[in-house]
């Protein structure tokens, strides 16, 4: 299945604000720069913009990358996420959902 994130063993929230105009290559560069690792098939990477009402999810599959994009419809809806590295904590699949 394309974009089956349930296969990922790790969920990484990339801290700081991501430019939501970035595509797969730009987001991969952020992963390499911030996490000091190449995106792998066992992990998903979450990016959030300044408005905190949309996220991008980067997933590496065996033969390609998948980029998922979600925007909240709620007028005042916002994602809660860490602002810097000291606020980063592990999250469960239930919290991600």
UniProtKB/TrEMBL annotation:
InterPro entries: Transposase_IS66_Orf2. Pfam families: TnpB_IS66. NCBIfam families: IS66_TnpB. This is IS66 family insertion sequence element accessory protein TnpB. It comes from Coprococcus hominis (ex Arizal et al. 2022).
């Amino acid at each position: 299945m394309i974009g089956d994130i349930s296969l990922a063993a790790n969920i990484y929230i990339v801290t700081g604000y991501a430019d939501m105009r970035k595509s797969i290559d730009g987001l991969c560069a952020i992963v390499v720069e911030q996490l000091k690792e190449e995106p792998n098939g066992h992990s998903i990477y979450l990016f959030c913009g300044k408005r905190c009402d949309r996220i991008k999810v980067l997933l590496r599959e065996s033969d390609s990358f998948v980029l998922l994009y979600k925007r909240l419809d709620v007028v005042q809806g916002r994602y809660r996420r860490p602002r810097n590295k000291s606020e980063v904590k592990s999250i469960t699949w239930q919290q991600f959902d």
